[in-house]
Amino acid sequence: MQDAGLSNISVTNSAINNLPPDVDLVITHRDLTERAMRQVPQAQHISLTNFLDSGLYTSLTERLVAAQRHIDNEVKVTDSLKDSFDDTNNNLFQLGADNIFLGRKAATKEEAIRFAGEQLVKGATSSRNMCRRCWTAKKLTSTYLGESIAVPHGTIEAKDRVLKTGVVFCQYPEGVRFGEEDEVARLVIGIAARNNEHIQVITSLTNALDDETVIERLAKTTSVDEVLALLNK
């Protein structure tokens, strides 16, 4: 949007419970849209299944550019996490070789999520209670981003159990079903984050995974060094 000259629009990630009453537009996964509409019924809502669908964002930007030609007043989109979003922390999302697990297999998404949680516990990023809470929460809420990527992370209630922000990268070449028939994840990236740092981590991930060829390489590689090179750029 900045490239399109829409400098008067503020865009941020937010938990549904934190959506402010003056938000204009809310984009959510389809599993969460109904909750978002109850929270801020006056806002416009866009429901999607693939957060990495660049076509949707391009179309939305074009609509906003067209609207700006006729509307002079400032358009505001929620900035409720501004105080907790530290964009100067460049080292927040840094993987190490010990955080990467290639060639894994899982029969269910619960099994894949449980494994990611166990590795976060082993890495001393979270307590075992956090792992249990994360696994339970994912029965209720989709963590599938699209493009064969799933990002399970803890709930707001479990943040006090996180010792430090951490990430684990788990590759499932044969895929794990995370929801609908076409929601098959080959990359499961577990996050344990303090405060709202998971939003910064997810932002870093989506930037790093904005290329289909990169995703394909990550899903097939047998080299930990290649994963590090692709994600720690």
TrEMBL record:
Keyword Ribosomal protein among UniProt keywords: no
Superkingdom per UniProt: Bacteria
Domain PTS EIIA type-2 intervals: 93-233
Listed GO CC annotations: plasma membrane
Alphabetical keyword list: Kinase, Phosphoprotein, Phosphotransferase system, Sugar transport, Transferase, Transport
GO-annotated biological processes: phosphoenolpyruvate-dependent sugar phosphotransferase system
PROSITE patterns for the chain: PTS_EIIA_TYPE_2
Presence of the UniProt keyword Transport in the record: yes
GO function terms (MF aspect): kinase activity; protein-N(PI)-phosphohistidine-sugar phosphotransferase activity; protein-phosphocysteine-sugar phosphotransferase activity
PANTHER family per record: MANNITOL PERMEASE IIC COMPONENT (PTHR30181), PTS SYSTEM MANNITOL-SPECIFIC EIICBA COMPONENT (PTHR30181:SF2)
Stated name of the protein: PTS system protein
Biological source species: Klebsiella pneumoniae subsp. ozaenae
